[in-house]
């Protein structure tokens, strides 16, 4: 959503607004689900999670939605490029978004989960292959992959910059033994 021009986003009002008329007919937005993805609050979410983990010395898993929801709505409305995304959009102004779900930044333990999930998926998909070759990595190999990923912030690298996006390629490449 942060890449869309605001006029495009606001054109969705007739489908989302509670008393909207769609093409001259009464619409019922309660029968529709719209999912909007946006990166506009990434900086704010990362900052709050960083404070929670580093300054408060608490686990990321203890962050509650209630602690972030007001920040997410505010970020959606005020963050981003002047004429794009949800910034100053009618959808946010009219409180038509029911939930703002934060995607929390991933730490090294989460990257390990991504690696293990990919290996499991790869091996399950390869089960019926004529040339069945299991993908296996030792713990030191997995740790090397984790350590090679990029993390932020620079002064205290806690969060993966790519999340799980590049894990598949890195794991597949690391599994080739010469």
SSE blueprint:
Elements: H1 6-10, H2 13-16, E1 21-22, E2 25-26, H3 42-55, H4 65-78, H5 90-93, H6 108-125, H7 139-148, E3 151-152, E4 159-160, H8 167-175
Antiparallel strand pairs: 1-2, 3-4
Which characteristics define this entry?
mainly alpha; 44% helix; 178 residues; 2 domains; two-stranded antiparallel sheet; single chain
If you had to describe this structure to a student in words, what would you say it looks like?
The protein is mainly α and 178 residues long. It has two domains: 6-93, no CATH class; 108-175, no CATH class. Helix content is 44%, strand content 4%. It has a two-stranded antiparallel sheet with strand order 1-2. Strands 3-4 form a two-stranded antiparallel ribbon. The protein is globular, with a radius of gyration of 21 Å. The model has no long low-confidence stretch (mean pLDDT 82).
In short:
By secondary structure, the chain is mainly alpha-helical. It has eight helices and four strands.
Q: Would you tell me the overall average pLDDT? A: 82
Report the uncertain regions: none
Tell me the strand percentage band: under 5%
Q: How many DSSP E strands?
A: 4
Tell me the series of helices and strands, N- to C-terminal.
HHEEHHHHHEEH
- Calculate the terminal CA-CA distance, rounded to whole Å: 44 Å
How many structural domains are formed by the residues? Answer: 2
What form results from the Cα inertia axes?
globular
Number of separate helices: 8
Strand order of the largest sheet: 1-2
Q: Which structural class do the helices and strands define?
A: mainly alpha
Radius of gyration, Cα only, in angstroms? 21 Å
Largest sheet: 2 strands, antiparallel
Helix content: 40-55%
